[in-house]
Amino acid sequence: MTASIIDGKSFAEGLRGRIAGHVERLKSEHGITPGLAVVIVGHDPGSQVYVAQKAKQTVAVGMHSEKYELAETVSEAEVLALIEKLNADPAIHGILVQLPVPDHIDPQKIIQTIDPAKDVDCFTPASVGKLAIGLPGPVSCTPLGCLMLLRDQLGDLSGLHAVVVGRSNLVGKPIAQLLLRENCTVTIAHSRTRDLPSIVRQADIVVAAVGRPEMVKGDWIKPGATVIDVGINRIDAPERGEGKTRLLGDVAFAEAAEIAGAITPVPGGVGPMTIACLLANTVTTASLINGLVPPSDLTA
Ligand code: GUN
Fold it and tell me: For 294, which of 158, 165, 228, 287 could close a Cys bridge (C-beta 3.0–4.6 Å)?
């Protein structure tokens, strides 16, 4: 293997340490305890684990945490009423509704009811617009995590060619916006892109966010490129025992690590950054709601 491994777990730990410092300062100098409310509807086991982690890490950095677990059968109106209540609650600076929600609930209605000032996912149209034109506010968690890892690895990203594979609202589009703000030349590739391997071969930075296990092959990577793998694909692993699974990224890691300059592993790369960036966003929104300048080391 030639690539250096980008250790997202250790970077996220350091970031949480910095967040705890900012939380302490907000409390002692301004009497503000940042508060995050997480809402989960139904009993998807993956979401349950994820939400429990969010609550635990929120408390660990000294913030106020509220968790709302609603039944699968809850009406859309009841969820909207809870969001309105949290919008009006001065102890809450961030609201996150875990997606996906059950089919009888319209996720866009949920998202658009969240006060943009408390939109720590950066999902509302107002937040997405601010991100696009570079106004202060929360930045989508996973893209922010990717950007922090890239800056740490490469320093100035100016002039580098970044190829983002995937055009989702959750990752592809916002990471492309952020990289453009960093003065990268940005190509957004997707499932209809012709000759994807030759496009990816041009990249100094590859961000793979398609949700297809090991789709990006080693011989697609330009020697020395930096590879950020956002994919978290759970696949059956009968070799580990009956019913066992394992996680695979969107990049064929072993092949790519022979050619890349640096690469994120799965797990332990981008994954741990997402929750840390959610906490960072809560410090950002708590600061902005109170008329303070958000800490510059926690945002894009
Ligand atoms: N489900 C999977 N990832 C996310 C996320 O980043 N935010 C929310 N709200 N739901 C998710």
Answer: 287
Catalytic residue chosen out of the listed positions 54, 130, 173, 222: 54
Global pTM reads 0.97
Is 54 an active-site residue? yes
- Ligand 1, atom 3, lies closest to the CA of 99
How far apart are the C-alpha atoms of 176 and 228, rounded to whole Å? 13
Which region holds residue 155: left if phi is over 0, alpha if psi is between -120 and 50, else beta? left
Domains 31-117 and 141-272 share a fold: yes
H-run or E-run covering 5: strand 4-5
The class that CATH gives domain 141-272 is alpha beta
CATH number listed for the domain at residues 31-117 = 3.40.50.10860
Q: 130-188: per-residue pLDDT in tens?
A: 999 999 999 999 999 999 999 999 999 999 999 999 999 999 999 999 999 999 999 99
Q: Which of 119, 121, 204, 250 is catalytic?
A: 121
Q: Is the CB of 176 under 6 A from ligand 1?
A: no
The domain ranges of the chain are 31-117, 141-272
